[in-house]
Design goal:
elongated, mainly beta, 3-stranded antiparallel beta sheet, 6-stranded mixed beta sheet, 143 residues, 9% helix, 1 helix, 12 strands
């Protein structure tokens, strides 16, 4: 895997983008500066009594492995709204409450031979009974 490397400037189109101060790229032709900021994810630990819900990833990367439900926060979303949207997309569950914020963790998401730095936010949702789940989106199953 390689760190994200950008060659062509999105402003002038020249093959002149070079790494700048370890977190950005700068065009040596038009001086455009692009910051490669981290992506944000929101995930839920959904518990019922002593059990937690895990999903099985349906797609690359990590296809077939267990994961917490959740995903990337989209531009213009809060972490809480992104979490509720992802839970609806992945599990067909609509929650009115995102639960309690637990913590954050820095991580790396590898996709198509590129490493993306992420900030993963975790929430806890405690339920009194098991919800009806219908997997969709990028989830193959759950346990």
């Amino acid at each position: 895997m390689t760190q994200l490397m950008i060659r062509f400037c999105p402003v002038c189109g020249k093959d002149s983008f070079e790494p700048y101060q370890n977190k950005a790229f700068q065009c040596n032709q038009c001086d455009f500066l692009y910051y490669n900021n981290v992506a944000t994810t929101s995930s839920a630990i959904i518990s019922v009594g002593e059990e937690i819900l895990l999903v099985i990833r349906a797609q690359y990367p990590q296809q077939g492995k267990f994961d917490l439900p959740g995903g990337f926060v989209e531009p213009g979303e809060t972490a809480e709204h992104g979490l509720l949207r992802e839970l609806k997309e992945e599990l067909s569950i609509e929650f009115n409450d995102h639960g309690n914020y637990l913590c954050s963790y820095t991580n790396r998401y590898e996709f198509a031979d590129v490493i993306y730095n992420t900030l993963d936010l975790f929430f806890h949702i405690n339920l009194s009974s098991k919800p009806f789940i219908e997997v969709a989106d990028d989830v193959a199953g759950f346990q």
